[in-house]
Amino acid sequence: MPARIVEFFGYAPLDPAGLVNATARHCPFVDGPCIKPRHGACSLEQGAQSPVIICPNRLYANGHEILGDIAIQAFGAGVALTSAAIIADLRSTQSLTGNEVAVFGKYWGSELSIPQPRAEDDDDVGGFFIDYVLARLRQDGSMAEFTAVEIQTIDTTGSYIEQSQSYFKGDAFTDSRGNTPGWSTAGLNWANVSKRILPQLIYKGYVLRRERLCGKGLFFACPSAVLRRVRARLGTKMLEYPIAAGTITFQAYDLGPPVDAGLQRQLVKGETFTTTVEQVAYAFVSPVNLPDMGVYEKAITAALAR
Questions:
Q1: What is the Cα–Cα distance from 18 to 24, expressed in whole angstroms?
Q2: What separation in angstroms does the CA of 253 have from each of 77, 221, 230, 272?
Q3: Is the pTM of this model over 0.70?
C-alpha cells in the first residue's frame, strides 16, 4: 500500500521548524543527530489509516517521557529517572533519597550488554542489548529491583526517498499520478513481527524471568499499529496478568491529532496489556489465526487450471 511522510524531522512536512532541523539533520526528540539523516521521516501514513511511528527516537519525546511512565507502572509514583553518572555523584555525597531510578540505555550515558550463552568450544559470540534497564535504588545506593524496556517501531519496505528529497529542498512532493502531497512505494515491514520482534521478546523475557531482582518483568513499548499486529499474530485469547516477575507488559503509543505550524504532535498513550512470557511463547508456536484448511491445495489447483 502506498505511503507518505506525516512527520519530517519532528514536524509536518514543509513546516519551517522542521526545515531548520532538516538542514542540520537534527532530531528534536533527543536533541541530537538524526539516526536516519537521508530520509528524516518520523512517521508514515498509508491510505486513510492512522499514522504509524517508524523511528524509535520519535518515542523518546518530552525527555523520554515513556520511560518515566513505565518507571511509575513498575515502581510506583514519585520515582525519578537518573543517569548513572548522576547516581555516582549522589552516592559520593550521600545525597540519594531512595526515589532514584538509574537508567541504562541509549542517550543516558551507559548501556548494558548481556552475554549470550555459548558452548565451551565456540568462539565468543558477543552479547545482546536490552534497550533500557531501569533500576530502582535504595537510599544507600544498592539496587532494590529492576525492570527492562524494549522499544520497537516498525521497519519500512520500498522507498520514500523522493518525498524526502523534495522536503529537504522545501518543495511539496507530487507523485506520478499528480497527487500533492504525493504517495510513494514505501510500505511497512509487518513480516518482522514474526521473524524478529516476537522471537527476541520471548528470549529476553525468559532471560529476565531468571533474574532475582527483576520483579516486574519486561516492558515492550511500541506504536499501537505494532501491538495490533502482535496480537493478531498471537491471537486474542492470551490471559491478562498483573505486572510481576516473568510478565511482559505491552504498552502502545499513538500520535495525537494534527497541530498548527511550529508545533509537534503529542505522543498519546494507548492500550496497556500484561501477560506472561509463557503465554506469549505458547501463542507464538501455536497460532490460532490460521487460514482455512486446504488453501494451498486450492491455490495450486487454480494455478494449474490457468
A1: 10
A2: 20, 8, 14, 9
A3: yes
